[in-house]
Amino acid sequence: MSLKAIMETVLVVGSTGNIGVSAVTAALRSKRNVLAVVRNQSSADKLVKLIGSSKGITFAEANVLSDSGIKGVVEQVREGKLPAFQHVFSSVGGEYTTTPLPEITTAQLRSNFNVSFEANFFAYRDTIGYLLEQKNPATTWTICTGSQGDLATHPVPAMTQGALFPMTTAAARENESTTVRFNEIYLGYRVEIDELAEQHGVTKSSDFANVYELLLADPNVRSSRVRVDDLDDLKKLKYQKKF
Ligand SMILES: NC(=O)c1ccc[n+]([C@@H]2O[C@H](COP(=O)([O-])OP(=O)(O)OC[C@H]3O[C@@H](n4cnc5c(N)ncnc54)[C@H](OP(=O)(O)O)[C@@H]3O)[C@@H](O)[C@H]2O)c1
Question: What are this entry's molecular-function GO terms (predicted)?
Answer without folding.
Answer: oxidoreductase activity
